[in-house]
Amino acid sequence: MSEPLESLLKQVEARAEELVGLASRLIRFQTPAPPARNTAEAQSFIASFLEEKGFAIDRWDVYPGDPNVVGVLRGQDPARYKSLIINGHVDVAEVSQGEAWDTDPFDPFVKDGSLVGRGAADMKGGLAGALFAVQLLHEAGIRLPGDVLFQSVIGEEVGEAGTLQCCKRGYSADFAVVVDTSDLHIQGQGGVITGWVTVKSKETYHDATRRNMIHAGGGLHGASAIEKMMKIIQGLQELERHWAVTKSYPGFAPGTNTINPAVIEGGRHAAFIADECRLWITVHFYPNETYEGVAREIEDWLGRVSQADPWLKDNPPQFRWGGASMIEDRGEIFPSLQVDPQHEAVRLLGGAHESVLLEPAIVDVSPTVTDGGWFSDAGIPAAIYGPGNLRNAHSVNERVSVEQLVRFTQVMLKFIYEWSHTLK
Ligand SMILES: [Zn+2]
After folding, report:
1. Residue 156 C-alpha to ligand 1 middle, in angstroms?
2. Crossing angle between the packed helical segments 402-420 and 3-14, to the nearest 10 degrees
3. Does any domain span residue 332?
4. Do 235 and 343 have their domain in common?
5. For 246, which of 46, 140, 199, 208 is 20 to 30 Å away at the CA?
6. Mean pLDDT, all residues of the chain
7. Are residues 183 and 196 in the same domain?
8. What tens digit of pLDDT does each residue of 291-346 get?
9. 8 Å CB contact between 195 and 281
């Protein structure tokens, strides 16, 4: 290892308290989502932090009060050397009334070797570690040859995909690390898409017509949208089972690809036959599948279920897939992410991990979803790699081990340095 890098890695350990201070500073900004629209101050802090380290800042409102920040540190020779995106979300999981925290969740403290506070694991610890790595490189006067982009994004906890907005704005790189909760595993992920399935009758009938609709000789060709939705739900259960039997992906328990009927709404009043019923579903799929693909499969399947029904065939279900926010339009998409263990950056990150932790890096899949999928969706190779474990994310007394935070920062420092020195 080169001399300056070696001494920087030692500095991370020596200055662990400063690192914990930075993480605590981030946790003190109260950025839970929901309610969201509360990240402007935290983003200003991160923007000036990056600006002081030589980054050019781009900041824009994704929603009022929720700006994205992208810092770009131009390399010395970006045409020849690899570029890197470091990505993290600044919003944290909500804190509900009456949760039994040992203390104020936004007033972090260290207990038994762990930093405790909302967002410690998911993911202000990861953000702080990556920022601290950048700080040490800057202080040492190291000029990196490749570009480094730091994306501090909003909205991850409520499917608002600040990361998607970065991709849409044109930010790209040779590799992206999402420093979200992964317990220092290098991870890909399955995906999630939500959807609304609506059964709607062309006519509206009085409750008193039910006899004519369902009994012999009634003669009225109508239906309750609620009862027809039962058929749709059964169809989804059959498809879910079919998927569980026929599809699999290494690292996931069989049947992880579920279709959850999460919310149902329908009918107008007890004096009517229900003329509309809406079902909100959550679909989990594997890393080698796309959200467009699974949505098509469901539409196709329910299309055939409907063809076999005398009323549904003329009144087929309608679909609305995804959405840009769970708060604004009740829908979200998290694309899946496949990690290629042989990708140059993944091998380099794994090597950095091994040299710091003295054990091989584990490459596997996250049991949850992160913004990592948006990079894959945009054609940017990516992986999730961050401190903290999911048991301690979103939880009461959320925590991250200080030791792991230090190791993470060392690995990131080494990885940023080495990837930036890799020829294109
Ligand atoms: Zn997260």
Report:
1. 7
2. 160
3. no
4. no
5. 199
6. 96
7. no
8. 999 999 999 999 999 999 999 999 999 999 999 889 888 999 999 999 999 999 99
9. yes
197 Cα–ligand 1 center, Å: 28
Distance 399 CA to ligand 1 centre (A): 13
Residues 210 and 223 in one domain: yes
66, 91, 371, 418: the active-site residue: 91
Kindly state whether residues 166 and 312 are assigned to the same domain: no
Nearest to 237, CA basis, from 157, 148, 302, 327: 302
328 belongs to a structural domain = no
- Do residues 31 and 124 share a domain? yes
CA distances in angstroms from 206 to 223, 224, 228, 229, 311, listed in the order given:
12, 11, 17, 19, 18
Q: Report the separation in Å between the CA atom of 237 and the middle of ligand 1, taken as the mean of its atom positions.
A: 30
**Domain span at 219:** 191-321
Helix (H) or strand (E) holding 265: strand 259-266
Please give the Cα distance from 188 to 417 (Å, whole number).
23
DSSP string, 124-176: IHHHHHHHHHHHHHHHTT---SS-EEEEEE--GGGT--HHHHHHHTT---SEE
Q: Which of 122, 147, 156, 289 is catalytic?
A: 156
Work out the number of other CB atoms within 10 angstroms of the CB of residue 212: 14
For the question of residue 203 being annotated catalytic, the response is: no
- Is 180 an annotated catalytic residue? no
Does residue 210 share a domain with residue 170?
A: no
Judge whether 329 lies within some domain. Answer: no
Q: Do residue 121 and residue 183 come from a single domain?
A: yes
pLDDT tens per residue across span 46-103: 999 999 999 999 999 999 999 999 999 999 999 999 999 999 999 999 998 888 898 8
Q: Would you say 12 and 132 are in contact if contact means Cβ atoms under 8 Å apart?
A: yes
What is the whole-number distance in angstroms between the Cα of residue 250 and the centre of ligand 1?
Answer: 23
Paired residues of 86 in beta bridges = 150, 177
